[in-house]
Amino acid sequence: MSEKMVTLVSSSGSFGGKQEVWSHESKELKCKMNFSVYIPPKVKNNAGTKVPVLYWLSGLTCTEQNFIIKSGFQKYASEEGIIVVGPDTSPRGVNIEGEDDDYDFGSGAGFYVDSTQDKWKTHYRMYSYVTKELPKMIDQNFPVIKGCQSIFGHSMGGHGSLICALKNPGFYKSVSVFSPISNPVVGKWGQKCLTGYLGNNKKDWEEWDATLLVKKYKGPALNLIVEQGAEDPYLADELYVQNLIDACVGANVAVDYRLHEGYDHSFYFVSTFLGQHIKHHANILYSTVY
Questions:
Q1: Which residue of 65, 110, 211, 290 has the fewest C-beta atoms within 10 A of its own C-beta?
Q2: Catalytic one among 155, 176, 179, 182?
Q3: Where are the domains of the chain?
Q4: Active site residue 265
Q5: How far is CA 152 from the centre of its chain?
Q6: Looking at the predicted structure, is the pLDDT value of residue 53 above 60?
Q7: Which of 232, 277, 280, 281 is catalytic?
Q8: Residue 24: active-site member
Q9: Which class is domain 7-289?
Q10: d(CA 55, CA 130)
């Protein structure tokens, strides 16, 4: 562990392992960032053991705390023997005028893109942070099997998980999403963030839209699960999940789409099916090791 690179913020026992929060100075985002790391007992109790890593991306307004407090994922990560890492959703405290004005833009809403607009481009580079800086740092400082990673997320984090996987074929061995913002070029949340971070040229938005990216995807199997609540109040005018499913079918990209009556957009929904997702990722990740 390189103390110069990462600093321990907190550590609590959980299902035989450790739920930790760490911080570091991000070169991509040019600010201090927190991230969560769950260390399963398979690692905690066996010095020198390395395991696969699963990255979680959270939704609008979240920090690294929401998922580790609300979801109960630790039980499943402990059972499956995988490390789970969760970054914050945006830079924090970088003193950009207006960064804290709206819940759906700026702080807590980095949208997992690399901004090109002068006001935001120095700090708001969450895509490069998630796909480049964070994995490298995790590889260097935690007992993970290098190159053995998957990704999943919720809402804005579902969008982030999809584009990270689609733009980096083979980098993630599997991807799964809960209630993802699937076609942001047509949704209100997406249009607001894409305009603010990328400008008014809608052609520039297309490289950050999972529905459009999947239509030209030529990489290895995504091992994709899309979990969606039928009572989600954002399904019709923000998420556009069916557009993504239709695009997958049209592009012959395999997807396991699960639509559930009686479930909404909340962590009650996420926590209900989270164990199945972690098992899905663990099975695929360990199959690449042995």
A1: 290
A2: 155
A3: 7-289
A4: yes
A5: 5
A6: yes
A7: 232
A8: no
A9: alpha beta
A10: 9
Which amino acid is residue 280, in one-letter code?
A: H
**In the predicted structure, residue 33 carries a pLDDT above the cut 90:** yes
Can you read off the two tokens belonging to residue 176?
A: 């799964």
Per-residue pLDDT reduced to its tens digit, 241-259 = 999 999 999 999 999 999 9
Give the pLDDT of residue 3: 41
Q: What percent of the chain is modeled with pLDDT above 70?
A: 99
Question: What amino acid occupies position 51?
Answer: V
155 given a catalytic annotation = yes
Query: Each residue of 94-104: pLDDT tens digit?
Result: 999 999 999 99
